[in-house]
Amino acid sequence: MNWRASYDWKFVARASVVIALVFAALLSSWVGIEAERNGKEAVTDASLLARRVFDVSLLAYELETLQERYLGEALRSKIPAKAVDDRIRDRYLSTLATLRLEMDAMAGARLEAGEGALLQSAKRTLERYEGIASALQAPRNPKGGAAALSAALGDATANRVAAQLRELGNQVSARAASAAEEASEAGDRARVLLVIFGGVSLLLALYLAHWLGVALAKSSALTARLAEMARIDALTGLPNRRVWDEDLGKGLDRARRTGLACAIGLIDLDHFKRYNDTHGHQAGDRLLREVAQALAGRMRAGDLIARYGGEEFAVLLHGCDAASAQKFFERLHGAMPKDATFSAGVSDTDGREAAEDVLQRADGALYRSKSDGRDRTTVIRREARGP
Question: Domains in the chain, ordered, with CATH?
Answer without folding.
Answer: 2-200 (1.20.120), 241-380 (3.30.70.270)
